[in-house]
Amino acid sequence: MIDYNSKINDSIKSVKPSGIRKFFDIVNEMDNVISLSIGEPDFKTPWHIRKAGIDSLEMGRTWYTPNRGFAELCKEISNYMLRKCDLTYDPKSEVLVTVGGSEAIDVAIRCLVGKGDEVLIPQPSFVCYEPLTIMSGATPVIIETKIENNFRLTVDDIKDKITDKTRLLILPFPNNPTGAIMEKEDLEAISKLVIEHDLMVLSDEIYSELTYGGKTHVSVATIEGMKERTIVINGFSKSFAMTGWRLGFACGPKEIVAMMTKLHQFGIMSAPTTAQYAAIEALKNGDDDIVYMRDQYDMRRRLVVGSLNKMGLTCFEPKGAFYCFPCIKSTGLTSEEFCTKLLHSKHVALVPGSAFGECGEGFVRLSYSYSLKHLKKALTLIEEFLKEL
Amino acid sequence: MDKLLKLLSENSNYTTAQLALMLNEPEDYIKAQIKEYEDSGIIRGYQAMVNWDNVPDAGVMAIIELKVTPQKEKGFDEVAEKVMMFDEVSSVYLMAGGYDLALIVKGETIQDVSAFVAKKLSALEGIVSTATHFMLKRYKEGSVALVDVEEPTDRREMIL
Q1: The pTM is what?
Q2: Which CATH number is B52-137's, of 3.40.50.2300, 3.40.50.150, 2.40.10.270, 3.30.70.920?
Q3: Residue A242 CB contacts under 8 Å (≥ 6 apart), including other chains
Q4: CA-nearest residue of chain A to B4?
Q5: Which of A18, A307, A372 sits opposite B159 (nearest CB)?
Q6: What is the CATH number for A371?
Q7: I need a surface site. Which of A350, A360, B38, B64 has the fewest CB within 10 A?
Q8: B148 — contact with chain A (CB < 8 Å)?
């Protein structure tokens, strides 16, 4: 009998499986669940983008691409970063095309930190930063963002957490699950601290196109002195509704992008070819699609946030992404109890806030990336549920 | 396009409070706007979108192409206005192309529709010819899908 436990890498073993797996097992087994739990656009990829992928297949263009991605795509990404963020990246040396934003995050973390290093991770946030940090051998240091600060990251939140081992700060804004954004002043304050302590920043800007109420996304790399210490990560999944195509990218200093490309080259070879053809079309002719989808999300956002507040679930106004993060403390239930009860009694699935870090306890995440019809139905059921509590 | 009209045309079942939230306007404004649309005849009514294919004994539907001799002064309007008075006719459109008017006609049976075409429609002055196409199956009406397209059932519930 082989003792597999002794065969497995200790750092992989030390990553805890998601605590709310149990909850999702129930969701998956139930029929007729009205889910507001999935974090991906409900839109189909715009037709002209799909068509570009189809055309490339019809032409038989099914080979590997260069490791860092097609030169044309890197050029378009560079143009996009200039057009949208006012940032200049050399397409030949400062851009890497990856398998989704997720691969870019993984590769960046592994390039920047290792054993003995500490990584500052704000929470509530997307679930991958902490496990990826642990698997790289480094130590995650969790920073709790607070509702009283509109879930923004403040200098006060960070400064006591910095030690002489701190190497990297993760900046996940616009934020999943809170919907918080960081404005220029917020970023300037943090940047001062980052520069003072000679840290690097991994800025996960995958929701950069989805900001509301006249607030446009500001990249931390635009703050003076920050471009040279920031890896900006973005992708096509959320902005162009291209989750299944698995395509993202990273932009940063050429020395670091070269190292990331090395890891990517040996682990992945190159990002999917068909997806890269589609992405070129998306960046060339897709800006209007983004505007259309953002307007639709915004309408849903106002409906959901307004309705939740009316029914007594206090909801901080999310300014980005497509989630809202209502506080459920008034019900006296924990996040998981709330979601489990709601699921059993009304068949509506939300995600317990605790899935995004301990400090998410007392909140639930509701994705409004669903049709208005679906949202309306779910909101009616949530209201009924609250009345029956 | 007017966003309020677009929302109502997709689903007239929204409360004015919901419309107000979505459009970021005061509820009173939404109420007034709807009233104005109703008064001016832009909004002509509110209907449920029924999938008649799933309703037993719902009858049959046909699209009828009409070729028409335009009448003095009123052109095609005269025939169109006469045709639309029949209860059997649910839609009438003036078309560009190979024929002039397109009608959607409902009846209990194929024989009903045939009798309507032969006895009532063809008898009208100005109608040159008719071509009747019976509908076999509905897939989409008024932007609403009437069939459920099969999707993979393991569309994952995961934390993203």
Answers
A1: 0.90
A2: 3.30.70.920
A3: A45, A49, A236, A275, A278, A279, A282
A4: A299
A5: A18
A6: 3.90.1150.10
A7: B38
A8: no
